[in-house]
Design goal:
Length: 301
């Protein structure tokens, strides 16, 4: 996939998602329930791509013009029910204190003080009900990740207010006209799936690794075949996750080229994985006792 296509993918994804929503509703009203349900898979995938676009907005990578980046990010945040200011605040700690006890994006798996049963229950909830689990996790992280500055706190309050301004009338209209089935088919179920995909990808990248170094605490997927490379482009190259954590200022289209030298510079770097499937198989056994971070090596729990 060309660099130009990659650059345009974040902007086109919401358009494609809106078209899919319309198609699913049209199929439902046309008496084709199976076709409406069939639209869920592409909508979930597109929803996950929008979450990755949202992630890029948090890093100021969507546009060289800051205000364009912020408008796009805030809009995506309203749609996903996670304010951009909230996500950015918690995600900055995720990068600065990767997998440590202060990394609230990986809470509670980064806390040796949390009992195993609770971490297992949290993992089960996050992997199946990541929406609304993610919203609550980031809301908690907003207050747990250190004191908010006045500017950040004001911005977050305004973004929550904007979310209310957008969603309260929308829900009122849906309730007035009884459009709950359409809402579930075109938005609620696909977004639940999108957030679940996001959670599984997050677990594949981080779960079960007891380190705090970017190249040793993250599974990096370097695809070998053409299909894997196309998937990487569609995922905005988030699969080169160790490189992203090593240098969060790199734009997504720069991650693939930078990965070999990033891993070569660290003799303790984890071996790269050829696919998400291979990384998934490496991660799955760790779900029996979900842990992340080097602090577990010093814990007797």
């Amino acid at each position: 996939m060309s660099r130009g296509a990659i650059h345009h993918a974040p902007a086109l994804t919401p358009v494609l998602y809106a078209a899919g929503m319309i198609a699913a509703i049209h199929a439902w009203h046309g008496g084709h329930a199976a076709l409406a349900v069939a639209w869920w898979l592409p909508l979930m995938y597109l929803g996950h791509m929008m979450l990755l676009t949202f992630h890029e907005a948090a890093h100021y990578h969507l546009s060289a013009r800051r205000w364009v980046n912020e408008v796009r990010g805030i809009t995506l945040g309203v749609f996903a029910l996670v304010p951009l200011g909230v996500y950015r605040h918690v995600h900055q700690f995720h990068h600065a204190r990767l997998a440590s006890e202060q990394d609230d994006e990986l809470w509670p798996y980064n806390r040796p003080s949390v009992p195993r049963w609770l971490r297992v229950a949290a993992a089960a909830a996050e992997l199946t009900l990541s929406w609304p689990f993610t919203q609550l996790q980031f809301l908690r992280g907003t207050f747990a990740s250190g004191r908010l500055t006045k500017a950040v706190g004001t911005r977050i309050a305004l973004e929550y207010a904007l979310m209310a301004v957008a969603w309260v009338p929308a829900i009122a209209i849906i309730a007035k006209y009884g459009w709950w089935e359409e809402f579930a088919i075109a938005y609620a179920v696909p977004m639940l799936g999108a957030f679940n995909i996001h959670a599984w990808r997050k677990f594949i990248e981080h779960m079960g690794i007891q380190s705090n170094s970017p190249t040793a605490a993250v599974r990096c997927i370097v695809p070998e075949g053409p299909l894997g490379k196309v998937q990487s482009a569609l995922l905005l190259h988030v699969n080169y996750h160790s490189t992203h954590h090593k240098n969060g200022n790199l734009h997504f289209h720069e991650l693939a080229a930078a990965t070999p030298r990033v891993h070569a510079a660290d003799p303790n770097a984890l071996p790269v994985f050829p696919s998400y499937r291979a990384a998934l198989l490496h991660m799955l056994p760790t779900l029996a006792d979900p842990r992340v971070g080097g602090q577990w090596q010093d814990s007797r729990r």
